[in-house]
């Protein structure tokens, strides 16, 4: 039985095209049913995420024929009338399996090494399995893909490190504080990245958030979204003694926090460390404060450098990951030696 | 004293501490990115040989082996490793071993210098209390040693967080707040041990032949060290000495102890 994959992703097609091919979860069982009924495939799984739409299929048709038919099915089922060329890619047999393993391991993701795709792939497979659209071939391929993803995660550094500014901030906080559960975060300036960073800290257990913004209404909206407390912009220093982490991202053209302002406030902290995350451009926090005792300042360049460095490390792991994938894909449908010998013997006996 | 057989065991222990130090060098170079079971294992193996060396020496003397500089140094090292093996079971503090092993190796080499393992006169005092007094004090110094190691780790990680940010984030060293806690707890434990050990001194001297405790160099030095560490703890407790300064205080005080411990031993008639 041949295995093929037909689809499009963030690299091959723009979002305007990807969204035309996207399947809602409730549509998938029906689509799989129609594919099988038409005799195109015997087994199939549809993976539909914001970055990719892929159909994994197994059948007795020739792979090239199966690819053409699935492409036709895709266009017709999604009512796409415009001409589509290289935006839709296809892989068959061992290349198809290798592609599946790469997707499962996050090697084909927009954010190299991310793990969310593995969960999405498992969900897509479970849906097909539940409705009995998978069989021996795809079950084996998907189970192996999950194992390969696990092996790659444990044996390589492809998923190591924080590759976003928010994640890098959390990692830094964990290098300073014994635990985050009792730590208070203050957000100065209600920007998108500061919200993401605050959310990342909260997801790792940070105790609470205080939001301060020039527009008090915006501060209230963000505070509500983060289940925190809003304060007026000029009142941030009054809360200073209580907070452990400050994320600043205002549009101010001058420093919001400088050494002169911090020095008289520091004794009230009784020696507790203070993490300052400055993600504003131009900067909100005077670099000089990093020389103060118990103060640790990181600006957007520091955080981006950390994220980039981790990304470079991940990229350097690609070759190792691909080697594992090639080995595992090559061995997937190869019959064990004794089975092959038996088959050869039977064939020889039949011929004689 | 020539080369007694128990010293072979001590030599093996020092070699293992040396291998741990060598391994530590690679851990440093790699920025402490791997778990530190190897270093822990090497120190634990060294501890076993070290323990055998001390038991053999103790059995041959029929008392706790702390009669000369070699024995006192060996006991101090043993106490340091013992405390580390307990503390290091906590995964995020295991890297203390990477910082402790060069110290142990250096002190171990020093302990084997000729002339330190002199057979002294038979102890004049009652055996049990003397052993307890010395054991408690040396365990205390071991705990001060671990506190100093935690302090050095704090200073190293703090420096990285301020100036070599990538290295700080990629290392597996514990967060600085945890290192400060370890430093403080070890200082308190050590202070208690030293306090009990010193409090026994007048009773030991009383029960032996007449001796001038309050003019003895070692006793005065011990009181100075005790006061120095007590002031560190009190200042920390009153929030006057935190993080960076406490780390410098702890590391500095221990350097002072290391530089003066053996000298004051030689000046002390009670400890000869």
Runs of chain A with pLDDT <50, length 5+?
none
End-to-end Cα distance of chain B, whole Å, is 15 Å
Determine the strand fraction of chain B and express it as a percent band: under 5%
* Class of secondary structure makeup of chain A: alpha/beta
Helix content of chain B: over 70%
Oligomer: heterodimer
Q: What is the radius of gyration of chain B computed over CA atoms, rounded to a whole number of angstroms?
A: 19 Å
What's the helix count of chain A?
Answer: 13
Number of domains of chain B: 2
Tell me the domain tally of chain A: 2
Number of helices in the DSSP assignment of chain B: 9
Named CATH architecture of the largest domain in chain A: 2-Layer Sandwich
Q: What does the radius of gyration of chain A come to?
A: 27 Å
Which two chains form the greatest contact, residue counts included?
A: A-B, 24 and 20 residues
Q: What does the model show?
A:
The complex is a heterodimer of chains A (352) and B (272). By secondary structure, chain A is an alpha/beta fold. Chain A has two domains: 2-158 and 317-335, Glutamyl-tRNA reductase, N-terminal domain (Beta Polymerase, domain 2); 165-306, NAD(P)-binding Rossmann-like Domain (Rossmann fold), CATH 3.40.50.720. In chain A, 47% of the residues lie in helices and 16% in strands. Chain A contains 13 helices and ten strands. Chain A has helices spanning 15-21, 28-37, 63-77, 93-105, 116-130, 136-155, 165-176, 192-203, 216-225, 259-265, 300-315, 318-332, 337-351, and strands at 2-9, 43-48, 52-59, 89-92, 184-188, 208-213, 229-232, 245-248, 274-278, 295-299. A six-stranded parallel sheet of chain A has the order 7-6-5-8-9-10. In chain A, α10 links the parallel β8 (245-248) and β9. In chain A, α7 (165-176) packs across α8 (192-203). Chain A is elongated, with a radius of gyration of 27 Å. The two termini of chain A are 27 Å apart. Chain B has 272 residues and is mainly alpha-helical. Chain B folds into two domains: 1-119; 123-272, no CATH class. Chain B has nine helices and no strands. Chain B is globular. The A-B interface holds A 161-162, 168, 171-172, 174-178, 270-273, 290-291, 293-294, 296, 298, 302, 305-306, 309 and B 157, 161-162, 165-166, 168-170, 173, 175-178, 181, 239, 241-245.
